[in-house]
Write a structure and sequence with these properties.
By secondary structure, this protein is of the alpha+beta class. The protein contains 14 helices and 19 strands. Bound molecules: guanosine-5'-triphosphate.
Length: about 550
């Protein structure tokens, strides 16, 4: 029972543990699914921002095409025409810092070009940067690519007249643009004239006479380049300003060269450590632009993640665990209650058994003398009879009756009679030494002693008789003795199947009455005791 209860408790505990682990697992799985959904949302948001940036780049590139159109439509575009067109675009495209016209000028044409610009700008000349960094008059070379028109002039005075062919990097990109008939962008440059010191890039668009379709023709027909100076930061901010998702840290990286270069970032590096989720960092390459490969590196902030997290994983785990605990507690209560009921039932069954035994004992006990009663004797006699038959052993019976008991009652009263019966019963019982022997009150003032497998029942009978007399219970009216005496009939048998137990007790009774008739205070026996098995011998002569 106790073992079962411990096993049940462990089973409940185990089930609770499994339930808690499962609830945690369900919560974790919700969390994982949510993370995947957030990741997918995040990539889509970054994709939107990348598309917006690509769109912004293309819109700004269109400006160069418009300026190119001007030079294609006329062989002699004046500074005024250029400035009018350029300034109208610059008003609408704030991300363009400057628009420039870079003509191709041979050494022979240099003077003519310089003179022409000096009409309006007296100090104009083709310049280049010397080693120390200061601007000097451009040295002689076969071909010049000077900044000839620039809009706005304000802030770009240093660039005005600067020969791009004097800078090897610029010259290289110019030649490549010319040869491929491609708009090409430079690597990032620092726009020193900008307050924010933001980075920018130059975009060159080649302009030819006619429509040359071979490399040689392109080299021959090149007139010059339209140049745009773009502010990367402004362009970036304009592009992503109207995209929905907030809370994403973005970096624009130029991966064109061997080493990556950061062009722009919308956050400072010291704020990133505690606020971002690095494991979700996503690199989104943009379409190639001006021969350059830019990549948008995006990392979500904690705020971005928190906005998209729900309480579902937490709630499902907590409710799951609470549910499991409640079920466990309920099951434990039921098991405990049932075990308590079982204990109670067992206790009550034990009490009932004890009460039953007590009742049985009572139903087999004589109320007055507290020795076995007639019912007990009848049951015991039947059992011992059967046993004697089976084991082929003897069974003896002593029938006892108090002499002249009516007179005792009449003389001393019924209460004294009762006490006499108790004393006699006690004295008779004291003669019994074996557990298998039984003394019972047979009825009224009659007693019976059942002796299984006893050799000398007569000796015991006579001992009983003497012991009662020795009690010296006064019996004045008795005609036999001055004390209470008893008469006894003794009979023995080794019963067989054919023997009749009722005739056996009847004969014992008969022997008792023969003892009475012979003068009382004596034992009557059958002198031929147990001569033959299965034979009950009739009384022949009383004996004192
Ligand atoms: N006090 C008392 N008397 C009882 C009880 N049972 C039977 N008796 C009395 O025992 C007496 C038996 O009387 P009888 O059957 O005439 O026998 P007797 O007087 O003993 O005469 P003999 O048997 O010939 O010696 C009756 O008076 C019963 O009332 C009992 O429980 N208590």
């Amino acid at each position: 029972m106790r073992k079962f209860s411990i096993f049940s408790n462990y089973l409940v505990l185990f089930s609770i543990l499994v339930g808690i682990i499962l609830s945690g697992g369900i919560g974790y799985s919700f969390y994982q699914n949510e993370t995947l959904a957030i990741e997918s949302d995040f990539r889509r948001d970054v994709g939107d921002k990348a598309a917006a940036l690509e769109r912004e780049l293309l819109i700004n590139l269109e400006v160069l095409y418009a300026v190119k159109g001007l030079f294609n439509s006329s062989d002699d575009v004046t500074e005024g025409e250029f400035r009018r067109l350029a300034s109208s675009f610059l008003v609408r495209h704030q991300n363009i810092q400057a628009l420039e016209w870079i003509p191709r000028v041979s050494l022979d044409q240099r003077e003519k070009y310089e003179l022409q610009r000096r009409l309006l700008h007296p100090d104009f000349e083709f310049t280049e940067r010397e080693f120390q960094g200061s601007m000097i008059r451009a040295t002689e070379r076969k071909e010049y690519f000077p900044v000839y028109y620039v809009e706005p002039m304000e802030g770009n005075e240093v660039a005005f007249g600067f020969d791009l062919a004097s800078n090897p990097k610029r010259e290289k990109i110019l030649r490549k643009s010319r040869d491929l008939d491609l708009s090409l962008a430079t690597a990032s440059i620092t726009l020193v004239q900008e307050i924010s010191n933001q980075k920018g890039f130059l975009m060159f668009m080649p302009i030819y006479r006619g429509e040359p379709n071979t490399l040689i023709k392109r080299r021959d027909k090149l007139i010059g380049f339209v140049l745009g100076v773009y502010r990367i930061g402004d362009m970036f901010e304009t592009a992503i300003k109207y995209t929905g998702a907030q809370g994403i840290n973005l970096k624009l990286i130029d991966n064109t060269g061997v080493s990556a270069e950061q062009l722009y970032s919308n956050y400072s590096s010291d704020q990133v450590l505690h606020t971002t989720q690095f494991q979700l960092t996503y690199n989104k390459p943009l379409s190639r632009f001006g021969g350059r490969q830019w990549t948008l590196v995006a990392t979500p902030t904690l705020g971005y993640i928190a906005e998209r997290r729900s309480l579902l994983p937490f709630i499902s785990s907590v409710f799951g665990i609470l549910f499991v605990l409640l079920c466990g507690a309920y099951t434990y209560a039921i098991i405990r209650r049932s075990s308590l009921i079982k204990v109670e039932v067992e206790e009550r069954t034990q009490d009932l058994n004890e009460a039953k035994l007590e009742l049985e004992e009572l139903s087999h006990t004589d109320g007055l003398t507290k020795i076995a009663n007639r019912r007990k004797f009848d049951e015991q006699f039947e059992k011992e009879w059967q046993r004697a038959v089976r084991s082929n052993t003897s069974l003896s019976l002593i029938m006892i009756d108090i002499d002249n008991f009516k007179q005792f009652n009449d003389h001393y009263g019924h209460l004294a009679g009762d006490q006499c019966l108790r004393d006699v019963a006690k004295a008779l019982k004291s003669n019994m030494s074996r557990n298998t022997d039984l003394i019972a009150r047979y009825g009224g003032e009659e007693f019976v002693i059942l002796l299984p497998n006893t050799n000398e029942p007569t000796l015991l009978a006579d001992k009983c008789r003497m012991n009662i007399e020795k009690l010296h219970i006064p019996h004045e009216p008795s005609s036999v003795s001055e004390y209470v005496t008893i008469s006894l009939g003794v009979i023995s048998v080794a019963p067989t199947q054919n023997c009749d137990p009722f005739s056996f007790t009847a004969k014992a009774d008969k022997l008792l009455y023969l003892a009475k008739d012979s003068g009382k205070n004596r034992v009557c026996i059958d002198e031929r005791l147990i001569l033959q098995k299965g034979d009950v011998i009739d009384f022949k002569a009383p004996k004192k």
